[in-house]
Write a structure and sequence with these properties.
By secondary structure, this protein is an alpha+beta fold. The protein has six helices and eleven strands. It folds into two domains: 11-60; 67-215, no CATH class. The protein has helices at residues 11-35, 40-60, 127-136, 138-146, 172-188, 203-215, and strands at 5-8, 66-70, 74-79, 82-87, 91-95, 98-101, 104-107, 110-115, 162-163, 169-170, 192-195. α1 (11-35) runs antiparallel to α2 and α3 packs parallel to α5. The longest helix is centred in the N-terminal third of the chain and has 25 residues, at 11-35. The mean pLDDT is 85.
């Protein structure tokens, strides 16, 4: 039996970069305002940009240091607002979704996970995580509209209860998130989408490691 494989997030490294860059630019901006009064506006804008960089770095310290843990039985994903895990036996496919642009196939910057059954996720998602996922995936749905893979009516947020084949019913943000997952699966073949920005390794290498872990 292999040990669980851990995929780390690049957030800690980015945090240091943004915070150091923000402090450096802020010092330059403040010095420039004193030394060259005629350019106070320009250096003032530089100070605002520096504060923005610093705040980005500051918020990244709340990002989880680990993105994924998986072994022969389970895949677990860590998000700033929570986490979820699924058993491999419930996973139908792991891939990088693509869309058609002119005569080309272009990748979406996510690893997609298609499930056999969504009911397993109900206890995994908190309302807070579900609400955040709904928001984060709006850009993917906007892409689907632009490519003609979905209509504006399709991507409207669905607040109705979500009913499983078993008769079990879910309401609230989790139900809305499940409706959105169904749409994402229809358009891009995946219920769960994990952004490339979560990884410190190449996405294709991670998918290969997942495949090997499942076979062990």
């Amino acid at each position: 039996m292999i040990k669980p494989i851990t995929i780390y997030s690049p957030a800690p490294s980015y945090k240091q970069f943004y915070m150091v860059a923000g402090i450096a630019l802020l010092l330059i901006g403040m010095s420039g305002q004193s030394l060259w009064p005629d350019f106070q506006l320009q250096f003032g804008m530089l100070c605002l940009a520096a504060l923005t960089l610093f705040m980005i770095g500051f918020t990244k310290q709340f990002e989880p240091a680990i993105s994924l843990i998986f072994d022969k039985q389970t895949l677990q994903y860590f998000h700033r607002y929570g986490q979820w895990s699924v058993k491999w036996e419930n996973v139908s496919r792991v891939h990088i979704p693509v869309f058609h642009y002119a005569l080309e196939h272009r990748e979406i910057s996510y690893i997609g996970v298609k499930l056999h059954e969504l009911e397993e996720l109900v206890d995994q998602f908190s309302p807070r995580l579900a609400s955040r996922i709904i928001h984060e995936h709006r850009d993917i749905l906007a892409l689907a509209i632009s490519q003609g893979d979905a209509t504006r009516a399709d991507v409207q947020i669905n607040f109705s209860p979500y009913k499983f084949a078993s008769g079990y019913k879910v309401t609230g943000p989790i139900a809305t998130c499940l409706h959105q997952m169904d749409l994402l699966e229809k358009v891009y073949g995946a219920h769960l989408l994990i952004p490339f920005s979560s990884f410190s390794e190449l996405p294709n290498d991670i998918i290969k490691q997942m495949a090997l872990a499942r076979k062990e």
